Structures are given as C-alpha cells and as structure tokens.
From TrEMBL, chain A:
<dbReference type="InterPro" id="IPR003439">
    <property type="entry name" value="ABC_transporter-like_ATP-bd"/>
</dbReference>
<keyword id="KW-1003">Cell membrane</keyword>
<dbReference type="InterPro" id="IPR018449">
    <property type="entry name" value="NIL_domain"/>
</dbReference>
<dbReference type="GO" id="GO:0016887">
    <property type="term" value="F:ATP hydrolysis activity"/>
</dbReference>
<keyword id="KW-0029">Amino-acid transport</keyword>
<keyword id="KW-0547">Nucleotide-binding</keyword>
<protein>
    <submittedName>
        <fullName>ATP-binding cassette domain-containing protein</fullName>
    </submittedName>
</protein>
<dbReference type="InterPro" id="IPR045865">
    <property type="entry name" value="ACT-like_dom_sf"/>
</dbReference>
<feature type="domain" description="ABC transporter">
    <location>
        <begin position="2"/>
        <end position="241"/>
    </location>
</feature>
Automatic annotation (TrEMBL), chain B:
<keyword id="KW-0472">Membrane</keyword>
<keyword id="KW-0812">Transmembrane</keyword>
<feature type="transmembrane region" description="Helical">
    <location>
        <begin position="150"/>
        <end position="173"/>
    </location>
</feature>
<feature type="transmembrane region" description="Helical">
    <location>
        <begin position="22"/>
        <end position="47"/>
    </location>
</feature>
<keyword id="KW-0813">Transport</keyword>
<keyword id="KW-1133">Transmembrane helix</keyword>
<dbReference type="Pfam" id="PF00528">
    <property type="entry name" value="BPD_transp_1"/>
</dbReference>
<keyword id="KW-1003">Cell membrane</keyword>
<dbReference type="GO" id="GO:0005886">
    <property type="term" value="C:plasma membrane"/>
</dbReference>
C-alpha cells in the first residue's frame, strides 16, 4: 500500500546539513494501523509529510497506492492528495467556517456540487458522532470535538490512507482514548490504512498493529506492537515501552525498595498473551527455597493481545536464585535481571 | 440660533463639500481595498516561506510598495499632476484627487494585508494543501476568510487616513470639506466655516470607525 525506499530528506542549516529523514525503508500494508514513534526532532513529522507530498524528499521514493508521491506534482499531486488525507495535532480547522462547512471544504476542493455535498456531510457528521453541532463554529467546540471534525473532514473524499500527525497530543487522556477508539472503528469499518506519528507509547499500544521507532532520522526498530512490547531491543524502544509499563510512581517505589532491601536479585518478568494466566509465580515459590517479593505488577492491553510485567525481588542463596532465574527462562517468560544501580 | 453661531456658513455649499469628501473617500477606499489586496497577497505568497516563493517579484512588489508608501502625500499629489491630467484631462474637482489618493494609500493597505495574512495559522494553509487545494482556492477559501477581521479593521484605518488625505487634496483644488475649510474658512478668516467643516470630518471618521467595528464583530467567529 505504502512503500518507502531509501527515503531521505535533508535540510540545509546555516552551518551544516541535517538529515531529518535518513535512508528509511518501510512498507505499510493495506488496512493496517501503522505507528511511528519518536521524540521530537526524530524526523517523524518530516517523514509523514513526504507521504502526501507536503515535503519533497531529497532522495529515495515514496509510493502510495501505486502513485509515486515523490515525483508527481501539480494537478496530479493535488488529485492524489484527495486520497491521502491528514489530521493534525492542532486540528487546523478554519475558524471562519462552521462544523458542516469545514467538513464540506475538501468536497468543494474536489469539485463535488452542493446537492451532493449536503448528504455526504450529514453522513460524516453522524460517523464521528457530532450530530446537532453542525452549525457550531470551531471556537465553540472542545478539543476532542475539533479533532472529530478534523477526522470527518479527512474522510470526506473517501481516502485510501489517513495520516495522523500527533493527532491526540493536544488532548487529555480521556479524550485521547475516545479519538483512538474512533480511529480503530474507522479502520475496521472502512478498511482504511492509517499511518500515525506520536511520541506517546500509549497511542501505539492502544491501536497500532505495527510500529516503527525513529531516532535521528532513522528507523531503529520495527515490528508487531506486541513483539516490540515484549522484547524491545534498542535502548530508545525500551524507554518508550517503559512509558506505559512503568509509572513514575512505581519507579520511585522500586528505587525505594532497592534501598530498603539491599539483598536479593531484581527481576522483571514479561508475560504475553495466554501465558498471563499460567501460575508460573506459584510454582516458582513452591519449587525454590527463596523469598519472592512482588514490587510491582501491571497488565497492558495492546491491539494484538495482553501484555503484563511483574518486577520481583528474589532473596535467598545465590545458587537457589540462579536456579529460579533458569526456571523462569525455561518457562518462556521474558526474564530480565534489573541492575541495582 | 444656528445662524448666530455660524453666521458665515453657507449650508448648501457645506453639504455639497461633504458629499464630495464622502465620494472621494468611498471611491478611493474601494480601489485601495482592491489594489492593496492584490499587492498584499502577492507580497505574502512570494515572500519568504510563502506558497509561491519568488525573490524577484517579491522584491519588485516590495520596492513599489515601499517607495509609494514613503512619499509624503502632499508631494505625491504634485508628482502625479501629469498622470492625473493624462487620465482625467483636469487636475481640479473630486475625481482629480482619486489617482493620488489611491496610489498613496494602496501600498499602505498592502502592508496591512500582508501582516493580516501572516497572522493566519500556518497549519490551516497546510491542511488545505494536504486536501489538494490549488493556490487560487487557498486564496479564496482560506486566506481571505481567515484574515477577514484584520482585513476589515485595516481598511477602516486606511479609510480614515483617506478622509485626512482628501482634506489635503482639497487644498490644491480637489473640492470637499478640506477645500472649503481652507478657501472659505482659513483664507477669508471665517473661523466658523473651518469649525463646521472640522466637525463634519469628525462625524465621518467616527461613522467609518463605527461601521468597521460592527463588521469586524460580525465576521469574527474566533
């Protein structure tokens, strides 16, 4: 559906060239929700803008649905953009237009006549749950409602791809979830391919099928969301995963516990899918002559299944602790010994 | 009562002069709005970070705007006498003032338009581009409506400045309240004529401001 080949974008700064996007190869499949995560400045914003030709690549190719976005221009590019729509962090609605007029805007651009616009707008308003607000101006809407207008507007010309540029970053957690639910719903109902960029792992966890992690213009890690959550490889990915698996409070509690319990081995266990239900812990405690102290536990729901993590402190003879760790490894549970410092 | 207060005022003449001032202001404001809008949009689109970056046409437009904005109005009128003569065949009467009024104020308004357009959220323009809008559509459906309050308050200020310019143009023979105040009031030492002309100019200015404020309030949905 979307193919990036050796995609590179350079910006010339006063004293050097910056590789905002650096030789990225990616393939995004039809109907999937693909997330790109990275901190600000990682190049994800530039990357997503090359998917609809808002930025031209310095080198490499972007193909969307058979159209080579990186080489077309003028009328062809404008036509192609109607099928690759975009929603934005700050919604970018026209304040001078009502909800219905904002949604009608892309239809006007596409040359749809008034008689056909009206029923289409009504249908879109219903799709995003804004019935009764058609004649409101953006200034009268909440952030979540504005993003719903943004989504309706993006869907107006029945696109093949929806690009989401930090679409929930300006929203509070609850509203974020309702917008993410809406996106999931649209993805399923319309079989729409969604590409989203974000710096919040929560967003990736909640709706994405696959994820790419970007750092300094490069994709450093990519895979199924569940897989990435279960065994993040790169340090940056681990940091992102810990955004959702470890709360700040828990981190403090752990360092507190480390200080209070100078003995023992700290272990993080990761459970995936069905194994979450298996009584591994009970058997661990019964089989080995060690004390098991649960410092923290949580369960996260990802799009592909359940992911849980437990942090244990194992106290006992070195030999027994080593055997216990061995036992956990043999149970196909992700086991990681945490450094004490 | 009024006869005693303003013994020298010829009300019929005063009314005629008021109409002339209104005529000059209205026509000049209309053309200033249109020409200023075109120049301002050109400055915005061709300027740095504009959609149609073009150094050369930006430099030419900016030079034109800056030069005509810098010439003091009273000198501009004199400089434009040959052009006025060519266009209208005369340098007297309200119509004769129009070329100078428009050329003097359109560049001024063009800068205001440019500022108004620069205030528009860049994201909204990007959104329109992402939908496949042409530049013409962006101008018509994004730039103009989204900057309308600033465009209106800008033309209000410009129209008020134009009232002042008409008075200046009046001194060199263009008619209107300025002309009356100068010839009938100042030169013949009839202070009451000058006073009445001034009051009428004030009323016109206040009315323009009032209308402008109402229009801004009506279009601003932010």
């Amino acid at each position: 559906m979307i193919k990036l080949e050796q995609l590179t974008k350079q910006f010339r700064l006063s004293n050097r060239t910056l590789n905002a996007v650096d030789e990225v190869d990616l393939e995004i499949l039809e109907g999937e929700i693909f997330g790109i995560i990275g901190y600000s400045g990682a190049g994800k914003s530039t990357l997503i803008r090359m998917l609809n030709g808002l930025e031209k690549p310095t080198a490499g190719r972007v193909t969307v649905n058979g159209m080579e976005m990186s080489s077309i221009s003028g009328a062809d590019l404008r036509k192609a953009r109607q099928k690759v729509s975009m929603i934005f962090q700050h919604f970018n609605l026209l304040w001078s237009r009502t909800v219905a007029e904002n949604i009608a805007f892309p239809l006007e651009i596409a040359g749809v006549n008034k008689a056909e616009r009206e029923p289409r707008v009504r249908e879109l308003v219903r799709l995003v749950g804004l019935e009764g607000r058609e004649d409101a101006y953006p200034s009268e809407l909440s952030g979540g409602q504005k993003q719903r207008v943004g989504i309706a507007r993006a869907l107006a010309n029945e696109p093949d791809v929806l690009l989401c540029d930090e679409a929930t970053s300006a929203l509070d957690p609850e509203t974020t979830d309702s917008i993410l639910d809406l996106l999931t719903d649209i993805n399923k109902r319309l079989n729409l391919t969604i590409v989203l960029i974000t710096h919040e792992m929560h967003v990736i966890r909640k709706i994405c099928h696959r994820v790419a992690v970007m750092e300094a213009g490069r994709v450093v890690e990519m895979g199924d969301v569940l897989q990435v959550f279960r065994s993040p490889q790169q340090p940056i990915t681990k940091r992102f995963v810990s955004q959702v698996t470890e709360s700040q409070d828990a981190k403090q509690a752990i360092s507190q516990l480390i200080r209070e319990n100078p003995d023992g081995t700290l272990i993080r266990l990761g459970f995936v899918g069905e194994r979450t239900g298996e009584p591994v812990l009970a058997r661990l405690i019964r089989t080995f002559d060690i004390d098991v102290n649960i410092l923290q536990a949580n369960v996260s729901q990802t799009h592909g299944g359940t992911f849980g993590s437990i942090i244990l402190n194992l106290v006992g003879e070195d030999q027994a602790v080593a055997e216990a760790v061995e036992f956990l490894h043999s149970k196909d549970v992700e086991t990681e010994v945490i450094d004490r410092d | 009562m009024i006869e005693q207060l303003f013994p020298n005022v010829d009300w019929e003449k005063m009314w005629e002069a008021t109409l002339e001032t209104l005529y000059m202001t209205a026509v000049a404001t209309l053309f200033t709005f249109l020409i200023g809008l075109v120049l301002g949009i050109l400055l915005f689109l061709t300027g740095p970070k504009g959609i149609y970056q073009n150094r050369i046409s930006n430099l030419i437009t900016a030079a034109f705007v800056n030069i005509f904005r810098s010439i003091p109005f009273i000198i501009l009128i004199i400089l434009l006498i040959p052009l006025t003569k060519l266009l209208l065949g005369s340098i007297r009467g309200p119509n004769a003032a129009l070329p100078a009024l428009i050329i003097g104020s359109a560049p001024f308004y063009a800068r205001m338009v440019q500022i108004a357009l620069a205030e528009i959220d860049k994201g909204v323009i990007e959104a329109a581009r992402s939908m496949g809008a042409t530049t013409w559509t962006i101008i018509r459906k994004v730039l103009l409506p989204e900057s309308m309050p600033a465009l209106i308050s800008g033309i209000t200020v410009t129209a008020i400045a134009l009232v002042g310019y008409t008075a200046m143009a009046g001194i060199i023979g263009a008619g209107g309240l300025g002309n009356l105040a100068y010839l009938d009031g100042f030169q013949r030492s009839r202070t009451d004529v000058t006073l009445v002309a001034t009051i009428l100019i004030l009323i016109i200015v206040f009315a323009i401001q009032w209308i402008g404020d109402i229009l801004v309030k009506r279009v601003d949905k932010r």
